[in-house]
Amino acid sequence: MPRFSPLLSVILLLSALAGSPSAKAQSSITVDEPWARATVPQQKVSGAFMRLTAQRDARLLRVDTPIAGVVEIHEMKMDGDVMRMRAVNGLELPAKRTVELRPGGYHLMLMDLRQPLTAGQTISLQLTIENRDGTRERIEVQAQVRGMAGNSTGQSMPHKH
Ligand SMILES: [Cu+2]
C-alpha cells in the first residue's frame, strides 16, 4: 500500500477543493435548455425559452441581448376562449421550483431583431436576477436557435402585438 508524502496530500486536497461544487457556485440560479426560435425572412420578433431554477426566492427582472432592440418577458393567458399574451414586469422564481419558459406559456419576446435567427446558431442572453434581499446578479446564457421543423414543442405561437 503506497503512502502519500505530506506534500502530495496537500496537492490532492487542493485539487479536491478546486473541483468541489461550492468552489464554483457563483450563481443561485440554474438555467436548463435555453433555446430560441429560428425566424423566417423579414420576421422581426421571436421567442426564447428555458427552464429556471432558483436556490433562493428570486425574480427575473430583465433580459438583454445584443441581437434584439427590446426583450420583454411575456405571459400567455386565456382571455375567454382566446389565448393572449402580455408583457409582465418580472417573473417570480420561487426557491427550488423550476419555472418553465416555453411556447404557449411564459416566454422571452425578442423584438426589433437586428439579424435573422438561423437554426444551429447560438445567441447570448443576459438575465438580470433580483434576489429577495434586493441584490442583483447577471447571468450569461447561451441559447441555441432551433427551427420549427422536427421540434415537438414548436407549435406556432399566436403573436399579435
Ligand atoms: Cu410574446
Describe this structure in words.
By secondary structure, this protein is mostly beta strands. It has one domain (about 30-145): PCu(A)C copper chaperone (Immunoglobulin-like, Sandwich), CATH 2.60.40.1890. The protein contains 2 helices and 10 strands. The chain has helices spanning about 5-20, 20-25, and strands spanning about 30-35, 45-55, 60-65, 70-80, 80-90, 90-95, 100, 105-115, 120-130, 135-145. Strands 1, 2, 3, 4, 5, 6, 7, 8, 9 and 10 form a 10-stranded mixed β-sheet that branches. The radius of gyration is 20 Å and the shape is globular. Residues about 20-25 and about 150-155 have low confidence and may be disordered. It binds copper (II) ion. Copper (II) ion binds near residues 74, 85, 107 and 109. Copper (II) ion (CU) binds near residues 74, 85, 107, 109 and 159.
Number-wise, the strands total 10
CATH topology: Immunoglobulin-like
Low-confidence stretches: 19-25, 150-156
Provide the succession of SSEs.
Answer: HHEEEEEEEEEE
Strand content: over 45%
CATH architecture designation: Sandwich
State the helicity in percent bands.
10-25%
How is the main sheet built?
Answer: 10 strands, mixed
Short description:
With 161 residues, the chain is mainly β. It has 2 helices and 10 strands; from the N terminus they run H-H-E-E-E-E-E-E-E-E-E-E. The protein has one domain: Immunoglobulin-like.
